[in-house]
User: Fold this.
Amino acid sequence: MIKKTAADLSGIISGEVLISEPLSRHTTYKVGGEADILVCPENSEEAAQVYLYAYEKEIPLTMIGWGSNVIAPDDGMEGIVLKMKNPSAGIRNLGEGVIEVEAGVNLIDLAKHTAGEGLSGLEPVAGIPGTVGGAVMMNAGTNEGDMSCVLVSVDVITPAGRRYKIEKRDMSLGYRRSMFKQTDWLILSARMSLSKGDPLELGRNIDSILRERMRKFPLDEANAGSVFKRPPGDYAGRLIEKAGCKGLRIGGAVVSERHANFIVNSENATADDIIRLIAEVRRKVYTMSGIYLELEQIPLAGRTELKTG
Assistant:
């Protein structure tokens, strides 16, 4: 059945179709067992073909974007795992500061590309690893701004094959949330409105942002970004550090000494190590402050369900 599915998919897309592929090769945490089938479509239209095929055949489908912000299970994943990773060719300038971007375009590449075109607005997300599709779904951002600051509309496709353009006002955008988290739609592309700026100045600004992120966060180690959402009126990193969790280790997973809201894979960590460390950090922070930290990262369902404590 798996070989037949892989052969079918190879016949409808030009991108890679891999059988029994370790997810540790495709996630920024570098953890995860084998996916039955991992597909890397070349563009959003190929992604749509895979998506529709999976729903028609009733095959489990999981989308992991660039592989950041997720915790892939040690026992692997059934069905099809869809990894979106389109080149910057998926960016179109529509004029008057409006761009259309395919869902698989990398955010860092996008910010650099638009800066080079003299378009400003994506600086707040310039250092966030991941794809446009994932960033839209999560309304990704930093303290300086998020995707809602630039979004105009999003094109999606439903399991029935219907395509819709969703306007910003209908997306229910908020802190690390959007309506897309509650749907099974596939995000194909997004339109964004940017302002004019000086390419050299924008480029220097983005370089400065990337250097500051390298200084502040453990980006030279395997991680999946911020572990917890920011609690109202406070910062997860501050609470975690105050609870004495910096350097806390379970197996190969460690709370970063550089920034407490990051967990790094320091010595061949497993997903289970990370999940158990998340639970222990939550427990310590709750015991100290009465605040229950809400997870920002997404534990993916494996062959046996992951528990996050």
Remarks:
- Residues 271-289 form the longest helix (19 residues).
- The helical segments are 2-12, 44-57, 107-116, 132-138, 199-216, 236-242, 271-289.
- The longest strand covers residues 186-193.
